[in-house]
């Protein structure tokens, strides 16, 4: 349903349902941001038009979607994306190194799911939603750990418990 696409609780709940194991959550907390940054680095090498890269172009729908889902956190995430874009433009790493880190990060993600979570990753059920939502979800999880938006965190935990009880 289209309305669910723009519902924060539904979107975060989808991703949270795939991440219960503490080790897997820690793996994701490290490697989702790593995948995001290395993806930006790799895609920044692909020119689109004028001085715009594929990373520049893709950052706009990511930031817009995050803001639509939650205005304040979306603005913070968008600012973080802008900082990442600035960093990416300053880099002097090789494509080989970036791709190696990217590949290794994905490997850890799959190990986290296979060994610790014992459940297939969310991306096997919805590739686009997972790739777009994963960095935002991790950002929310970071805010939850800091004590922010506890009402959203509590609601997601209740939703997850209720879905298991059904």
Automatic annotation (TrEMBL):
Q: Does the keyword Transmembrane helix apply?
A: yes
In the UniProt record, which is one GO cellular component term?
A: membrane
Q: Tell me the Pfam families matching this sequence.
A: Mpo1-like (PF06127)
The UniProt entry's GO biological process terms, in alphabetical order, are: fatty acid alpha-oxidation; sphingoid catabolic process
Taxonomically, the superkingdom here is Eukaryota
- Stretches that traverse the bilayer: 21-43, 63-87, 99-116, 128-149
Q: Which GO terms describe its molecular function?
A: fatty acid alpha-dioxygenase activity
Q: Which UniProt keywords apply?
A: Membrane, Transmembrane, Transmembrane helix
Recorded source organism is Tetrapisispora phaffii (strain ATCC 24235 / CBS 4417 / NBRC 1672 / NRRL Y-8282 / UCD 70-5)
**What is the name listed in the Swiss-Prot or TrEMBL entry for this protein?**
DUF962 domain-containing protein
InterPro entries from the xrefs? Mpo1-like
């Amino acid at each position: 349903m289209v309305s669910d696409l723009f519902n924060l609780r539904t979107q975060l709940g989808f991703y949270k349902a795939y991440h219960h194991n503490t080790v897997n959550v820690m793996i994701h907390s490290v490697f989702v941001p790593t995948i995001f940054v290395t993806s930006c680095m790799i895609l920044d090498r692909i020119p689109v038009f004028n001085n715009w890269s594929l990373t520049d172009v893709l950052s706009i729908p990511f930031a817009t979607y995050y803001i639509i889902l939650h205005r304040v956190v979306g603005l913070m995430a968008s600012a973080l994306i802008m900082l990442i874009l600035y960093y990416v433009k300053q880099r002097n790493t090789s494509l080989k190194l970036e791709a190696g880190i990217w590949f290794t990060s994905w490997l850890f993600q799959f190990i986290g799911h296979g060994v610790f979570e014992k459940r297939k990753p969310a991306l096997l059920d919805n590739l686009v939603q997972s790739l777009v939502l994963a960095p935002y979800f991790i950002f929310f999880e970071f805010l939850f750990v800091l004590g922010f938006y506890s009402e959203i965190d509590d609601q997601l935990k209740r939703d997850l418990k209720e879905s298991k009880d059904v």
